[in-house]
Write a structure and sequence with these properties.
The chain is an alpha+beta fold. The chain is about 35% helix and about 15% strand. A five-stranded antiparallel β-sheet has the order 2-1-5-4-3. It is globular, with a radius of gyration of 17 Å.
C-alpha cells in the first residue's frame, strides 16, 4: 500500500533510487499528508509511489481487485476496476477516454516498456476498450479538442463517500518539483470544489461487477 491506515505518515513505495532521493520522498510524503485534498505521486506507468490519507478516504468503499486498486496503479483502476464509476463520475467520457489517450501517448514515448505493454495487452482483452483505443481515440480527440486529454487543469466529476462532499467536481492539478521530475514522477492533486452537482451519479452496490465489455459507447472513426 502507498498509504497507511490510522493517520500515520504514508510510506513511499520502495523504488530503486539513491539514499538522498529516498529521504526526499519520505519528507515529501509528510508534505502530502498535510494536504486536505486527495493527492498522489505517480511514475510514467501510473504506478502510485505516494498517496495521502485524503486519497485513501476517497476510495475507501472500493472493493478489492487483484490488479487495479487505486493506490497501486491509478490507470489500471480507471480502466479496469468494476467499481471505478462509483467514485469517478461520468466515468467513460471524463476519465476513461482521456486516460486512454494519455496512455497511447506514453506508449509512443516510452516504447517497449514492459509494464505499459502489459496494460496494452489487458486493454486488448476488452473488445470495446480495444476498439476505442485503436479506432476511436483520434476521432474523439478531434471532437473534444486536445485540451480534454490533459490532466492538469481538467475539471472532472466525483462521488465522494463523505456526504459532506457527495456528488461534486474536482480540478486536477499537476505540480512536479525538480527532484520528482528528475525521478520521472508526477504529483497529481484532486482539488474538491465547493459547488455540488445537481444529481448524484448512481452508485453500484458493493460486489456488483461490470460485464466483460467495459465501455458502453465507443466513438468510431468517420467513414
Amino acid at each position: 500500500m502507498a498509504f497507511q491506515a490510522g493517520g500515520q505518515r504514508p510510506a513511499p513505495r520502495p523504488v530503486p533510487v539513491s539514499t538522498e532521493a529516498q529521504a526526499y520522498l519520505q519528507d515529501y510524503a509528510a508534505l502530502l499528508e498535510a494536504v486536505s485534498f486527495p493527492s498522489l505521486v505517480l511514475d510514467h506507468r501510473w504506478d502510485v509511489v505516494l498517496a495521502n490519507s485524503a486519497f485513501a478516504s476517497l476510495f475507501q468503499d472500493v472493493g478489492p481487485h487483484p490488479t487495479a486498486m487505486p493506490d497501486e496503479n491509478f490507470l489500471r483502476f480507471v480502466l479496469f476496476h468494476p467499481e471505478a464509476g462509483t467514485v469517478l463520475g461520468d466515468h467513460e467520457a471524463r476519465w476513461c477516454l482521456p486516460m486512454l489517450a494519455q496512455f497511447a501517448a506514453a506508449v509512443e514515448r516510452f516504447g517497449p516498456d514492459r509494464e505499459l505493454q502489459a496494460i496494452r495487452r489487458d486493454i486488448a482483452q476488452d473488445p470495446l476498450m480495444d476498439a476505442a483505443y485503436r479506432q476511436g481515440l483520434p476521432h474523439w480527440i478531434r471532437a473534444v479538442g486536445e485540451s480534454a486529454v490533459q490532466s492538469d487543469g481538467a475539471v472532472r466529476p466525483l462521488v465522494h463517500p463523505d456526504p459532506r462532499w457527495g456528488a461534486t467536481d474536482c480540478r486536477l492539478i499537476e505540480e512536479t518539483p525538480a527532484v520528482l521530475q528528475e525521478l520521472g514522477y508526477t504529483r497529481l492533486t484532486l482539488v474538491l470544489r465547493e459547488a455540488r452537482r445537481p444529481a448524484p451519479v448512481p452508485r453500484r452496490p458493493r460486489g456488483t461487477r461490470r460485464p466483460a465489455g467495459h465501455l458502453s459507447v465507443v466513438p468510431v472513426t468517420e467513414t
